[in-house]
Amino acid sequence: MSAVQATVPFETVRTPDAAGRPIKIHTRNVKVTYGQKQALHGVSIDIAEKAVTAFIGPSGCGKSTFLRCINRMNDTIAGARVEGTITLDDQDVYDPDLDVVELRARVGMVFQKPNPFPKSIFDNVAYGPRIHGLARSKADLEEIVVTSLQKASLFNEVKDRLTEPGTGLSGGQQQRLCIARAIAVSPEVILMDEPCSALDPIATAKIEELIDELRANFTIVIVTHSMQQAARVSQRTAFFHLGHLIEEGPTDHVFTNPLEQRTLDYITGRFG
Amino acid sequence: MGPLWLLALIAGLSFFGYVLGRWKSVVLSGKGALAARPGYYGAYVLVWTAMPALAILIVLSLAKPLIVDRTVRANLPETVLADTTQLSLQISGVEQVAAGLKLATPDELQNIRIGVVTARSVFARHGLPLGEDVKPYQLVAAGALNVVSDGLDTAIDAAVVAALAFGLIFAFARVRPRLRARNLVENTVLALLIAASSVAILTTVGIVLSLLFQALQFFSMVSPINFYFGTIWDPRFAAAGSTESGQFGFLPLFWGTIYISFFAMLVAVPVGLFSAVYMAEYAGSKVRSIAKPLIEILAGIPTIVYGFFALTTIGPFIRDWLAVPLGLGTSGNNVLTAGLVMGIMIIPYVSSLSDDIITAVPRSLRDGSLALGATRSETMRQVILPAALPGVVGAVLLAVSRAIGETMIVVLAAGVAARASLNPFAEMTTITVKIVNQLTGDLEFTSPQTLVAFALGITLFVITLGLNVLALTIVRKYREQYE
Amino acid sequence: MTDRALPLPPSQLSGPDVRKISRIDIGLKRRYAAERRFRTFGLMAVALALTFLALLFGSIVLRGYTAFQQTRITMIVDFDPAIIAPDGDRSPAAIMSGNAFRFDDLIAAALVRTLEIDPNDEDALYDGLDLLSKGSGPMLRSMIAADPTLIGTKKAVAFYATGDVDSFVKGTIPADVPESQRLIKDKHIVLIDRLKADGALRLAFNTALFTNGASTRPEMAGVGVALVGSLYMMLVVLVLSLPLGVAGSIYLEEFAPKNRWTDLIEVNINNLAAVPSIVYGLLGLAVFINFAHLPRSASLVGGLVLTLTTLPTIIIATRAALKAVPPSIREAGLGIGASKMQTVFHHVLPLAMPGVLTGTIIGLAHALGETAPLLMIGMKAFIVDYPSTPLDPATALPTQIYMWATEPERAFTERTSAAIIVLLAFLLAMNSIAILLRRAFERRW
User: Fold this and answer.
1) How far is A216 from chain C (nearest CA, A)?
2) For residue B415, is pLDDT > 90?
3) What is the predicted pLDDT for the residue at C380?
4) What residues of chain C score a pLDDT lower than 50?
5) B165 CB contacts (<8 Å, ≥6 apart)?
6) Residues of chain B above pLDDT 90, percent
7) Which of B178, B169, B183 has the alpha carbon at shortest distance from B40?
8) In a 10 Å sphere around its CB, with 0-12 CB exposed, 13-18 middle and 19+ buried, how is residue C432 labelled?
9) Measured between CB atoms, does B133 come within 8 Å of chain A?
10) Which residue of A has its CA nearest to B384?
């Protein structure tokens, strides 16, 4: 990174949410360093409730790093340091009194590569409710599992083989299983880190359809490489570049009428 | 010439051949381009000089004892040959007489022949005391032995020298610029590499054949059924020549082995597994970099040291503070002591292998669980350990195999009494202890008391082989799953 | 969804103020207690393993450090020619032959002078002789045989005290038990105190431990002979297993086709590394001694057996080192027209050498401590003299430890521990060299 960029402060250009949705997550001046290397240079963004917010940008721009700040998954990486404030419903996520287990129960996450546990399909989905003690009885648990699988539109495909290992499913099914697993804990927010990058187009279409349905009940933040995907599924889009948040606004605005030259360059394919 | 002299001669002439071959190729290089660097021509002559001679030396040296043995047998009277149980003793007796005859001076030999002095007294004067007087047929056989043996030695010398000379001259004559010396030398090196890699196979074959051969001799005297299903171990050490033998029941030894290994695993599995978990999940890099090598030191300490530790520290402690107060035993040698100390020895085998296996579980599974709000211990217990289970089972099986084959700790700490009891403060014994016991003292490769060690050995080998192969297959499958 | 107590979706919960508090009880208190417990178990396991290690080293060092000193009684000996060489022949052969007890007379005379006792008081004389090692006479004899010019002179000689006196002086035999149960009687204590006051009896560095061989008397016993036996074996192991191991690994890693046969060799080598070492001992007994008629108790046979036990370790280490050399090196070699053999021997092997040597040293260290197979081939022998060739009867450091470990005397326990310290020191040195080697040549591709 050149010295010029480091000295010129970036002003994040922000257009208000026309739909007037309440803000679920506020972040102010979030910086992340891995050892000596700074990965994020002060990101401030508001994420609307019950909407899909897409993070786009070239690889290495810090979008995944930022996503992992929201449920504090960066804690698990040795040498990672996070500064700034992130609030979830006005509660500071990095408050020492806040419990990270509780936070992650409220903020679920779906990863780039499907990562079902080497257990049965049922046990995969039941894992979260079990550890958190969410079900009072066996029937409760079964209901949670069935509902979650239904919400993840996977139930009809797997209802006859709930006891078979989750690792035996196809890639797209595995990813929907992971979404069902996240839903089963009844989170408020679901973070998705390039959830379709390992999937074929048909599986991708299914997941996108699912994301659109889930929007009714969850606040969703999705990191994606594909601008088409961002345009298809998200209501709001944030563009990241070299660790800075360049622009954030309603998706149609960002894609048709960006305020920043760099955003325009990126979405028209001039770099990235 | 002795074999060492022959080897020195081979080495010297081979080096000479190298110098000669190299020199000739350098001289020839003036007349045309060489197909290989001069050193390869040197090596070419060296290979031709050394290899045939070495091959002849090895083959003839291996054949010599067989021929000598046949000669001795041919010269022994029928009555001696008929008593097969004493035959090997008779043959070694003849060998001793033959060695004595070589020591004696010509005068003394003459005196022995005409019966003025006994061979025994002559040999004793030369520092070779015999247990009994030399019998006439022994003198005959020994004389024949010396003649054949000396003749063979001369033949070996001659053959080796001939091979050396032929190889050197032949190869030297063939050195010319177009000779592809490098390919020939490289093929020889490749053959040597293959030979070296087959040593591992030969070792296994050697173990199986040698143990099996001796064990079958044992089973010709004691039936396998009596051995494997016998419940009493009482191999009376009979006086030499007596045919009386005791009872060789394998079961009490097997029980002792299993029981001690059980206690060892009781110590090693929880401690090893929990330290692996702690190292992989909780320990900071600093603690890890100190504690991990320290624990692995336990694996580098010789087992004799553990045995001494058990004998002098743990054994008396368990006797005085547990066995005697509980009224369950009075000996420092007991199952618990041996098991505990063996367990300590095995901790690092379980921990470092488990550590590798736990860290081989993909990070994505761990992340997936943590992102659902699971605590680290929940993630470890419910996701990582179940995923790592096959690998951990493999590690534990390898550790069990170590425990079963461990010798020095049990020799010093378990005791020698072959008994099957449930009392952990009782003295018990193991397969390995009995192998050591039966092979201590004067060995007679014809008595069941000695041969039983080989039957025990092949049984031990088969048990550990099964465990190892099972464990290695499991671990290998497990590794492939996550690669 | 019915009215059963299922967690409600967040949308159905009321306003933001409620959500600040934990929505639902997810049993955090209980779960964190479990977390702490689990973590504590882990920490305890590590602590336990380290405690065992400390206990092991502690008990052996505490038992053994005293053995590096030994009680010596220094007396002026009058090398009287009339006693040593009554017939005037002062050749070493003459000194070594003849009445062996005449040297005890020299000691008795020295004792009479040192303790200033009546030469005719036999009881007092024997009380004094009780303190001295029974090996003192032979020791004096070999001393004179080695240097006949001593005859006719008077010289101070530092004799060994008996093992019991040694233990008593070091305080490892308690003085406060009733005399009848004590190995050292009151009359001996008086003498010891007196000699101590005179400066004749004191502790000195125990050279015998490092130079002597086996002895039934602890004060004369040492590991010197065993060390030489171990050294011979290590030489044999090094000379055989390094070339064999490296050559075998090169073939398997660089040349062998990947097929069922090499798969079998692979499994076989891994299995050999886990075969109990005593089985190798049986193999050695059956093949090297019973079949090939090599001498029993010889360090050559020990070395051969240990070579077989060490070979799998060296092969596994060498293959790992060869595997770590990146393929680009091989491609570069082949690319400039070198043959495969040249590439391997000129480029790959030198780069893998540090790893190979590290593996070899660790393998040797294992072989040095190996005991059970040596018992099988008769290296558990009472050897007093240094073996001059690898074919002579010899014993090894670990088997010497084994033989001493079963001796009941306190002075032997002490020396066993000291011998273990010596063995561990060797192992530590070897492993340190291996670690340094790895650090010095560590390469990241």
Assistant:
1) 9
2) no
3) 81
4) 1-22
5) none
6) 41
7) B183
8) exposed
9) no
10) A117
For residues B52 and C182, give the distance between their C-alpha atoms in angstroms, rounded to a whole number.
71
Phi, psi of C215 (to 5 degrees): -155, 150
Phi, psi at B269, each rounded to 5°: -70, -55
Contact C317, C359 (CB under 8 A): yes
Mutate to test the interface with B, among A67, A106, A124, A127 (most CBs of B within 10 A): A127
CA angle B290, B293, B297 (to 5 degrees): 130
Name the average pLDDT for chain B. 87
**Range of A243's domain?**
3-267
Chain B residues touching C272 at Cβ < 8 A: 200, 203-204
**Nearest one of A256, A249, A252, A182 to A220, comparing CA atoms:** A182
Is B380 a member of any domain? yes
B404 and B299, same domain (yes or no): yes
pLDDT at position B380: 94
Q: List chain B residues with CB under 8 Å of C311.
A: 199-200, 203
| Beta-bridge partners for C78 | C154
pLDDT single digits (tens) B339-379: 999 999 999 999 988 998 898 889 899 999 999 999 999 99
B104-119 b/e (C-beta count within 10 Å ≥ 16 → b)? beeebeebbeeeeeeb
Q: Tokens for A75?
A: 């804690």
Distances (CA, A) of A159 to A163, B204, C250, C305: 9, 53, 54, 62
Cβ atoms within 10 Å, residue C243? 12
In C25-174, alpha helices (H): 28-64, 81-84, 92-96, 102-115, 122-131, 136-146, 163-169
Strands A91-92 and A236-241, by their bridges, are unpaired
- Contact A215/A50 with Cβ under 8 angstroms? yes
Looking at the fold, whether C255 and C190 belong to one and the same domain comes out as no
Average pLDDT, chain C: 86
What type of residue sits at position C18?
A: V
B2: exposed, middle or buried (Cβ count in 10 Å: 0-12, 13-18, 19+): exposed
Distance CA A101, CA A185 (A): 12
Q: Tell me how far apart the alpha carbons of residues C212 and B149 are, in angstroms, rounded to a whole number.
A: 40
Number of domain units in chain A: 1
For residue C187, the enclosing domain spans 66-206
Q: B307 lies in which domain range? A: 247-481
CATH of the domain at A192: 3.40.50.300
Phi, psi of B195 (to 5 degrees): -60, -45
Does the distance separating the beta carbons of B313 and C55 come in below 8 Å? yes
Q: Mean pLDDT, to the nearest integer, of A93-116?
A: 90
Q: Which two tokens stand for residue B228?
A: 């494997």
CATH label of the domain that carries residue B323:
1.10.3720.10
* Minimum-distance CB partner of A186 among C7, C22, C25: C7
